[in-house]
Amino acid sequence: MTKHSTIPVCVIVGAGAGNGMALARKFSKQGYSVALLARNKIALDKRIEEDKELNNAFSYRCDVTDSQEVAQTFHKVMKQQGPISSLIYNAGNAVFDTINNANVNTLEQAWKTNIQGLLSCSQEVIPEMKKLDSNPSIIVIGATASVKGSANFLSFAAAKGGQRNMAESMARSLGPEGIHVAYLIIDGVIDTPMTRSFIKNKDDDFFLSPDAIADTAFHLANQKKSAWSFQVDIRPFLEKW
Predict the structure, then answer these.
(1) Strand locations in 100-230, DSSP E?
(2) 28 and 54 in contact (C-beta within 8 Å)?
(3) Which of 8, 160, 207, 210 is deepest in the core (most CB within 10 A)?
């Protein structure tokens, strides 16, 4: 591998307009070289170009449901940017279905995105993370569905619940080896142009700020080993729970 500087590298899987870009801004401002992964690289490149607060960020096309593509993408990231010290798994696909209309294809796609993708991405970074002295971390972005099987989110809840259990297993296995795995549950509606277009009668206090979410994720990724968190729930102060 080519010699790289000591700049830490953060990979953000699922670099959408809300959480993804906020995470990128936070980590880049804190001195990280950021790799942003998304299925639609054209849209991702446009978001990066338009975000004036974002520095030292690179885009990669990656479909996390394709394990071979995941392996190729992470190889590119490490070759171009260096060893990965933080992995933020933000990929997801909210599916609205119930036991009456769910089908195996929808369930399988939710599983592939939330569970298989996390497995593939994690296995690409763990070997090199074990060699680092920089307190490496894997932060998985969860949702209310990770701990609550609502009637209208059958496939999504099944996948997110499995993802949380998988992350807990990873945390128990990797913690003693010096890799911090944490699960960040987002309980509420994230403030994005899309959600604002769907929910027009709510004020700012109703929504979760993507930048505030990113602040919490960054804190988790940089916790001291003597006081690691595993599951952290965040929600707006007015959210009923």
Answers:
(1) 137-143, 180-186, 189-190, 207-208
(2) yes
(3) 160
